[in-house]
Design goal:
alpha/beta; four-stranded parallel sheet; 2 domains
């Protein structure tokens, strides 16, 4: 009865890409076989050892070697030992180079660095959702930045915008009748940002919000005296917390976010591991 050959997966990075290809190919057959992943290849001697093992076991090899030198050594040694192999990346890169005239970077592991950046972004977005609107004050100590301000000062849009830039942002609405969570007083001032706004601008924003929700007439939420009281309270809280304050009255989300992110980066340089 015919049996599937063992497969050696060889890479100068993690080898996950080649392993996925090998598993996908094996999945097309009845039966199973062993897949040996050999990552972080750096030297000719490592290649020699792998090919010797593969030859002795009648195994085949698939590789994602990026280094031109390692690929050349591998192909020469494999042919000498009559070991069959598949170069997963080489033909594709050659075709792209021929069509575009561009030269590849020849750096192993790039896809995993991209994956890492992607997962950092996803983690930051999930963080922003979990700790939005003061839902869980425990998140304040884990955040890169905590935004505070009255309702409709763009706390949530700012949190999400910065999350897409991989910043972990929590936010807390300031309401005079609601006691501040004790956790907010444990956040260092350099990780706090207070958002204020012109009362008449806020009145206009809240009025449009009420219309969008299907409410008509006046309400405490849009009353100008109430808004001024809320803002006065918010400014006092920000004074007590000694935090940076930004007036968002005439600023786009991107402008405010860029200012905050620049502050975060600057403070990380200043405070280092304490940040």
């Amino acid at each position: 009865m015919n049996k599937l050959p063992q497969i050696y997966v060889v890479s100068d990075s993690l080898g996950e890409t080649a392993e996925r290809v090998a598993k996908a190919a094996i999945g097309q057959y009845d039966g199973d076989t062993e897949i040996h992943r050999v990552p972080f290849i750096r030297h000719r001697e490592q290649i020699e050892k792998i090919i010797e093992e593969a030859a002795s076991q009648g195994a085949v090899i698939c590789h994602t070697l990026v280094s031109p030198e390692l690929r050349a050594d591998f192909e020469m040694l494999a042919k000498e030992k009559h070991v069959r192999y598949v170069d997963i990346l080489g033909p594709m890169m050659n075709m792209i180079t021929e069509e575009s005239g561009l030269t590849p970077r020849m750096k192993p592991g790039i896809i995993h660095r991209l994956d890492e950046e992607y997962f950092k972004k996803v983690e930051a977005i999930e963080f922003a959702v979990r700790y939005d609107d003061g839902k869980n004050p425990a998140g304040f100590k884990k955040a890169d930045i905590v935004l505070i301000g009255v309702s409709r000062t763009s706390k949530t849009p700012l949190s999400m915008y910065m999350a897409h830039k991989k910043f972990k942002v929590a936010n807390l609405p300031l309401v005079p009748e609601v006691q501040l969570p004790r956790e907010i007083f444990d956040v260092p001032p350099y990780r706090l940002v207070g958002l204020i706004i012109d009362p008449y601008k806020l009145n206009s924003i809240r009025s449009e919000r009420m219309k969008a929700l299907g409410f008509s007439g006046t309400a405490n939420y849009t009353d100008i005296d109430r808004i001024e009281d809320e803002l006065a309270y918010a400014k006092e809280v920000m004074r007590q917390l000694h935090c940076m304050v930004i007036d968002v009255s005439n600023k786009a989300i991107e402008e405010t976010a860029n200012r905050i992110m620049a502050m975060v980066q600057r403070n990380k340089e200043i405070y280092g591991d304490k940040y």
